[in-house]
Every structure is written in structure tokens, then in C-alpha cells.
Amino acid sequence: MVAKAYSVIDTDVHQTWPGDEVQQRLPEAFRQPGWAVPANLLPSPIGVLRGDAVPDQGQPGSCPRKMIEQHLEPNGIEKVILTGSGVLGLGVHPNVYYAAALARAYNEALVETWLQADERFYGSILITPQDPENAVKEIERWAGHPRMKQVLMCSGARIPFGQKFYWPIYEAASACGLPVATHPGTEDRGIANGFAAGDPTTYLEWHTNIPQNYMGHVVSLLCEGVFEKFPRLRFVCIEGGLAWIPHVLWRLDKNWKALRSSVPWVKKLPSEYVWDHVRFTTQPIEEPANSKHLEAILEMIHAERTVMFSSDYPHWDNDSPRHGLPRLGEDLAQRIFYGNAAELYGFDPKPAA
User: What is the pTM of this model?
Assistant: First the structure.
């Protein structure tokens, strides 16, 4: 439980627009297909958005005033990192020209509307990971904007994130002092691979299996030596869960001791790179019957350094900072709800009471 004296930085809030603010910024050649991002073939049977978050006009997440009144004000949210809604699929679109145009239009709309609506809103630079050349252009276009705080790409992909194909993205982000974040939702869509065991049958399977991609991407980043090559890089795993982290790193550390000759560029235990370079968000956090088990996991993954609060508002399973976590010690609560995100995104380290 977060004490009332704490301010909160929410690192995953999904905004959209009530109209065609993004589409109208597309070049003429791409306006006719409109919003044409690959869709999930296994939609949620209960929907994705909160029914009580519908504003007077538009869909949940499309009205800054509604978001402030329903989420920011009652929950003590001092700053919000916006991560978009329904747009990540551009990162698995086979037409890289359309994807690039849509990313640019989206970022322009974000800066010109939401970031003007309230000083508590901060943006993520949406990029095309399947087209690193354009991704770099988009990073360099917006990196100087004081309210754009990270680079964002989907977690569905054809190639694990550690491989050299993506290194231009990491080089540009590092040079600009921006973390790179990944968010789920595009697994098994468009040109993305599915899951390790194959295609699931239901949304329940799909939703449960999302951490598989995070395991693969993090292990790839570590074994390919990305954090040795780019020592300033910080990588954020949004909405990928936490409970998988200990067992994957235990296995990787053990195997590295015997097989380190195959990755001579990995200079230290892989887990040590994680504590220094990788950050994780809380929602959707695992909910064991015994909350002490979750507290043990937070200790195992050095949550005081690696974990940041996220609500996932306005999705149906979003978390309140008051009820989304077990009761935490004062120091750990301050780090998760504010301190870790403040350090990563360059905010004032001392939250207002």
C-alpha cells in the first residue's frame, strides 16, 4: 500500500484521441487505408478498456480531463508516461513506409495535443523497430523535446532484441540519453513471431504467455553484449510481469559460468547487467495466494533499483497505487512509486508531499 504522503510516477498510461488527430497528419498516400495496424486475432472476451472510463466524447483514454479526474487526482499521480493505445501494431506492419509515416504522425499528434493538455503528461517516442533507419530518424527528431522521455517499441518481433539489427536504435537512444522501452500486445500479429510452443487457441493463453517474449528479449540483450556495447543504455520492460525474472537469471548466470567462452563480450554475471540496465513495471503484477511470496520475489530482483509503478490505465485490469501491491516498507515503496522512475526519466528525485 502506498502511503498518502507519497507522490506517484505512473510509467504506463494509455492515451488515445476522440477523432482522427493521427490520421489527418498522415501523408496523402496513406490516408485512404486510415488506421491499418495488424489486429490481435484473439481478442479479449471481456474487452480491454474500463467501461467507467468513457468520457463524454470518444473512448476511454481519449480525454485528458477525464483521465485527470478519474486517475491522476484521486491517486496522487504527479507524472505520467504515456504509452499510446492501439498503435503499437505499426511495429509489426509489413509495409515499413506506412509504419514510418504512422509513427511520425502519432508522435506529432502526441506532442501537439496531450503534452499541451497538462504538465503532468510526458510522452514516449514511438518507433518502427522493423525499420531501424527510420527509427533513428524519429528518435533524433524528438529527443530534444523536454517532455519526450523514452523510446517505445512493441515487444512482438521477428528478431530477438539483442541482435545487431537493432543496434542503431540503441546507439541513437544512448547518444540522446533516452531509455528504450518495450510494451506487449503485438505478439503473434503482423510480421511478429508467436510464442515458443506455437500459436495459442484463446486470449487467456495469449495473455498468460506474454512473459515468454520478455524472457527471450532480455536473455538476447544480455548474451549479445548490448550493455557492454552501450553502457549508457537503459531498457524498460513494460507490462511483462516480474515473477519470471529470478528463475531466468539464476539459469542464465549458472550457464554463463560454464559457457562464457561462447560470449566473451559478456564480462560479468548476466544478472549484474540487469540490475544496472533493465527496469520493470509492476502491472500486471503476479498475485500469489500468499503475498509474502511476492515480497520475496521483489527482494530477489532488487526491486529498490529495478521496479517502477505502472497502472495500465484505462485497461480493465489496471492497478491503483493504493491497492495494486502488497504493503511495502517505506523505503521500498518510495523507490517503486517514485524514486526509480525519477532517476530513469530525469525528474526531481524529491517528490512533493
Answer: 0.96
